[in-house]
Amino acid sequence: MNRREFITLLGGAAAAWPLAARAQQPERMRRIGMLETISAPLNAANYNAFREGMRALGYTEGRNFVIEYRSAEGRGELFPELVAELLRLKVDVIVTRGTPAVLAAKNATSSTPIVMAAMGEPLMVVPSLSHPGGNITGLSGYTTLMEAKRVEVLKDLVPGLRHIAGLYNMGNPVAPPQWRELETAAHALGLQSLLLDARKSEDLQPAFDAASKQHVNGLTVGVDALTQANRKLIAELAAKHQLPAIYALREYVEAGGLIAYGPNYLDLYRRVATYVDKIFKGEKAGDLPIEQPTKFELILNVETAKALGLEIPPTLLARADEVIE
Length: 325
Description:
Elements: H1 3-24, E1 30-36, H2 44-56, E2 65-71, H3 79-88, E3 93-97, H4 99-108, E4 114-118, E5 136-138, H5 147-157, E6 163-168, H6 175-188, E7 192-197, H7 204-213, E8 218-221, H8 225-229, H9 231-240, E9 245-247, H10 250-254, E10 259-263, H11 265-280, E11 296-301, H12 302-307, H13 314-319, E12 322-324
Parallel strand pairs: 1-2, 1-3, 3-4, 4-5, 6-7, 6-8, 8-9, 9-10, 11-12
Antiparallel strand pairs: 10-11
């Protein structure tokens, strides 16, 4: 090989080296912060739905994304501290659930994208659903507007319903409008209404005692970190006081509650993955419209109904998406 051929060969090899080096570079590891109301085991179904959504979009956990899961364990006052921890980890996006979590994230950062898995009143944090602006987007839980419908469903299920109570954490900014919606719906149906304000787990037993003293014979339970974390206790208290209760999420019925009517949260969490994917591909959170739920579900617990001495009307059974025996 002469000198000219050697130089040509060497030049060709050198040109190929950057390509080989690029081909061997690992994929960028994305870090997703999940700011949740309850622990991963209690939230397993929704957590796994989100991960399934990511896999369906071509992501592999541990290879090109990891999840930093942080839970307030039913205590909303912990959210600011948890957000700060996620930001110290330099997460690429924060997935939140519930109004207190979104507010804590919004107050902590104006640059890290925030995707709401579900929030009762998105207009509390953004000026517009179609053009949210800033660093927030995601999905609405459509919570407040569902209160009236839940009152109607409970009236169909409970013969002689006269006095209905709403169990809410009024320290949650989304609870007051939910209570007003319930009051309006109850009045329209000729029902009395009673507010049960529970802000910590120790408030739950006294709230049910108050409902019994006031001869309440129907209850709606608001969605909140507190009620989610204590859903089994709430179902047990409702059974102890022989109080038919309606919830917004299937998890409460699976824990022994009577009936739930609301958005399908598994669908919401799968859809959250599409937002995260778009952000990873360069789109700005504030440019992505906030969407409403498209799937709703009615879940009945037949065993709980029997224990309460209730006969489920055939029309309600026919409407049910799932019946737990």
